[in-house]
C-alpha cells in the first residue's frame, strides 16, 4: 500500500541517516561510475530513482523497511514477479540482479538487516480516468489482469521454500492484524467521538468473520494474490506504433495468500462509497470471468470482502497518520459506519449480497 505523494515527516526526518546504507546497496550493482540517486516515493518502503549520467540508464531501487518482510519472503515475491513476466501473463518492471547474481541485496544497518531490490526503470503514467465511464472501463482492465494472475497462481509450481504471509481474518481484522487495529484507527480518527462509530462497526465485523468462516479458503476460492491491485499500481507506457501503451503492474510488496476476490476489494480501496460502485464491480467481475468462472456464492462474498478491506484501511490510516490517501480520516471512519449499516441491512451491493453464504 502506498501512502501517496505526501512524505511522512517521521520517515523523512531519518532519510539522511540512510546515505551510507544506500552506498552499500548500490555498490552491489553495475550502475556506472557515479550514479545519481533521488528519492522517488515513500510508502511502506522507500523507492529511489537511480540514473547513470554517462549512459542514460535508469533504475528504481526499493529499500525495504526493516521488520515487514524477511529475505525469504522478498525472494518469493520476486520469484513470482519474474515468472509472470517470463510467461507473458502480465508486464512487470524487470528485476535487476546484483553482481553476485542475486535478485536481493542485503546490508547491515546497525543490528538489523536492510534489504534492497533493483528494478529496471519503466516509463509511463498511472491511469487517471477523467469521468465515470472511463473509471468503469479501467476496472475492466483490473479484472482481466486479476483473472490472468490468479490462473497463473493456481497452475504455477512454486519454488521450494516459497514463503509469503496470508491475508486471513486473523491478519486483517483479527488479533494479528498486519496494519494495526481497526478499532484503534477509529479512535485515532475520531477521538472522543469514536464510540457511536465503533458501536456501528462491531456487529459488521462480527458478521464479516462469520461469513468468511462459512465461505472457507479452499483452493477454488483462495490462493496467491497481488492484494493491492489498484489503478495507482498500474503504469501505462508511452503509446506504441499502431496501439496503446503497455500496461505494467507494479508493487507486489503485499502479495500473499488470500481470497481471490480480495483483489477486487483492494481495487476499490478508498472509493467504496462511490456512486458508480456497482458499475466498477460489474466491470471487474465481467472481465475476470473470462478467465475464471465464479458461482453465486463467490459473487455473494464481494460485499463482505469490500467491507473487510474498508475496515482494514481504517486501521492502516491509524498507523499512517501523515498519509494523504484520504482528505479526511475522520469522515472516512464515519462513512465506514454508514457502509456497515447498509451491509448488515443487505443494502450494500444488494445485487450480489443474495448469493453470500
Automatic annotation (TrEMBL):
<dbReference type="InterPro" id="IPR050249">
    <property type="entry name" value="Pseudomonas-type_ThrB"/>
</dbReference>
<protein>
    <submittedName>
        <fullName>Aminoglycoside phosphotransferase</fullName>
    </submittedName>
</protein>
<dbReference type="InterPro" id="IPR002575">
    <property type="entry name" value="Aminoglycoside_PTrfase"/>
</dbReference>
<keyword id="KW-0808">Transferase</keyword>
<dbReference type="GO" id="GO:0004413">
    <property type="term" value="F:homoserine kinase activity"/>
</dbReference>
<dbReference type="GO" id="GO:0009088">
    <property type="term" value="P:threonine biosynthetic process"/>
</dbReference>
<feature type="domain" description="Aminoglycoside phosphotransferase">
    <location>
        <begin position="44"/>
        <end position="295"/>
    </location>
</feature>
<comment type="similarity">
    <text>Belongs to the pseudomonas-type ThrB family.</text>
</comment>
<dbReference type="Pfam" id="PF01636">
    <property type="entry name" value="APH"/>
</dbReference>
<dbReference type="InterPro" id="IPR011009">
    <property type="entry name" value="Kinase-like_dom_sf"/>
</dbReference>
